[in-house]
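Human: I would love a firmer grasp of how sequence relates to backbone shape in proteins. Take your time, and here it is.
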Amino acid sequence: MSDKKSGQAATAAAAAAAWEAGRLAVQQGDLAAALRWLARGHRLAPEDPRLEYDLANVQLALGAAAAAADIFERLARRHDFAPAWHGLIAARRRTGDADGAARACAAYLGRHCWDETILELVSAGAAGAGWCAVTAEGSLRIAAPSARRVQMRLDGIPIRAARRIPRGSWLDISAGGEPLLGSPLDLRALRRLEGLVAAAEAGLQGWACRPAAPNDPPELTLGDARGRTRRVKFSGNVLPPDAAAPFLLRHEFIIPTEELRDLVPPFRIYGMDGRDIFGSPVDPAAIAAIVPVPAARLGRRVSRLPAPRPLAVVMPVYGGQEVTQACLNALFAALPRRTRTIVVDDATPEPALAAWLDGLAAAGRIILIRHDRNRGFPAAANAGIAAAGRRDVLLLNSDTLLPPGAVATLREAVYAAAEIGSATPLSNEATICSYPLAAGGNPAPDLAETIRLDGLARAANGLARVQIPTGIGFCMYLRHDCLAATGPFRSEVFAQGYGEENDWCLRARALGYRHVAVTGAFVAHLGGVSFRAAGQALNRRNAEILNRLHPGYDALVGAFIARDPLAPARRRLDLALFAAGRRARATLLISHNHGGGVARRVDAEMAAIRAEGRRPILLRPAAPADPENTPFPWHAAVTDGAAADYPNLIFRMPDEFSRLLRLLRAESVGQVIFHHALGHHPLVRDVAAALGVPQEIVIHDYASFCPRVNLVTRGGPDAPPRYCGEPSVAGCIACVRTNGDETFERIGVKPRLRRSAEEFATAARVIAPSGDAARRIARHFPGISPVVVPWQDDSAPVSLRAPRRGPKKIVVIGGIGPAKGYEVLIDCAADSQRRGLPLAFVVAGASADDERLLAAGIFVTGAYAEGAATALIKETGAELAFLPSIWPETWCFALSEAWDAGLYAIAFDLGAQAARIRASGRGALLPLGLPAPRINDSLLAWEPNLSNSPHPNR
């Protein structure tokens, strides 16, 4: 396992441990401790909604109803599970938001089955106006004012009173003309099933759940090709949560082979709404009978180029009216003449969408095929392809945006060579054809931006084609002869979809056809509109089938990704996009990519440059795929910090240094601001000279003369870290020999000093954030007088709280490593425990080794997002900040964060941190090297002397 993966595993383990500690604290009734642990777990694993749900419940119990409501609402909207709605209703009520509570009640009642435990909450939310709901058994429950007449409308049509949930989509229930809370009832959501079935050695195996009533196994039916049916029996097991649906209770079922012998495949597994669960219909024998074709097999190339045929666009449609309408409207504006548009309505559950499609068909704008039940994407695509006859086919998802010109580019590509069977454009979300990030996950652009990107792609890449192992079905141009030779998608194998186009492409490859990515076309893809909760499970099932039918498929695609032949095309498009954002003047900033205070300063400078009408350009090291195991220097990445990023603007150093300079000259870079060189190739130091522009150098640490960067040394492997005292050159050389070079440069101490002296001497300005840092630089480089530009204004007033006498909680802020006083903190905690002092330490942030601190009794909150420090420090309940940093910091943002949170700060008498505390009077200074007992005594005893403070209450 790589260091990166092991680091991710360690973080996941730490999050799980924090979650478990939080749940244990809940069981023990210690909600304050539970809150601390769950908040830590959430910071370590911010994408885990289950942990977040537990956190919200504890917040609600502790009275933090507003914070809990924010989480409950996010979870309820994203995952739509009943307990989140219950929590949201309760939280809104506690904050006094009666309207918000009523809206949450309505949303819950309209999509979830009735739960007697929340009768009080619902009654309060209805506020006497009445409510309606559906029980898990399908009965209607109506609580209406007795004096008002109840009326019902099913899909807009008046009906007589119903006792059970009727067939339809929406049920509006009103009393005296006023809608009841919960109306309209979403009948589709109330009946809907999530589930998956797969062929197994023992027969059929899978799971199902009814999200509206998740606690009990749903009603599930097994049907065969002759229409015979049986109830599916559940095993009683509930499967572990799935990442795609973390709150779904997945009830397992197993149908043994013996129970299938007198039935005729394919087998359907469907719910009370008549819809098949994912993976159904399934025919285990048919799948087993398919002869595998190795994925790497390449048939003899097709040598005869067929005559072009007219085009038919085939678009399967299921749900998402707004997205589908946007897709078709863009399509109508983009299609060339004589193109036939075939829409296959795969039994959409949305009446408004079906009616809109009917209108398009009546107007002659589309050919509409409608399925009586949902059959899945492969079957819907096959129906459309069959209707297309012998035409070329553009297979298009209903969640795409097709720009004008893209079709013509794709068509030119498939007729450019005899062997090309299909063509796929670039897209924000297209697996191996994704842009700008090759792995996908890019946000979908709107239509205007899609049109712009398509135009830039054509200008940058022309008709360039790259052979790919498989086309991508979201937008795939299929040439008619390849379709005829290969045949339709195997819907009997891939059910609702995922993998069917890959299988088709591999079969076509074996017949001598090839597939290409067309890098001069770009089509937007929203991704995952129709199917969500069980979609990832179906994807995994079909991926297993795909690899069984085409052995070596994953290896084939993995080798393509490793080679990344699309990288040059993505880069050309990034260059075109970058050039499109050009301004009259630009300023180049050079920095590392390690975040922290340097990144904060760089971000502020870029914003200021942008506000002045110039373009900020940032040059930083490009993180490789495995950064932990890739030594410096890394290649150089270019960005401008705007909304669009350019992940493909990476210049291999030193080979592409001249190309980097050409880009910067084209941008009219008139100034270079040099922040940091960590991770960079030495050539980046020559950029300003090569461009012939002035350079400013910003001091963030002491890498200019200290290979250890921060003037911290160790006397030996087991010796504690300490401030080096800035010895002679000989002392520096000895230190590096013992401790190593933290800049990872192959340059000695003396050459480093000469290089820095030359750079400082030729710089337009050398900027230091504090007088202390400026004086240190001037002392090591005589004749250099850095300009002091504080990063923040310490004269701005703040309101500080004096720590109480007696027991104290001390907060240490930021990322705590050796230079930041990690060992000092450990020693202080050990002394406090040894002497039984009323002193508790908490780290607001992260550390070099959280587990060791936790074991020492020091709570660690976990790293915080930019801008969240003040709130987090306040949440710790600390009364005093301790900055145990043992290096002379050049500014110390943690100090500012302590003051912003209203805390005085204690630090060692060293560096900018000491100078700022001394000048402001907002804390106290301790002698560097003070033993832990003396430090603890000082923390317990210290009180501000407001009468002698140069800036009282500031």
About this structure: Residues 808-941 form a domain with the Rossmann fold fold (CATH 3.40.50.2000). The longest helix spans residues 3-27. DSSP finds 32 helices and 40 strands in the chain.
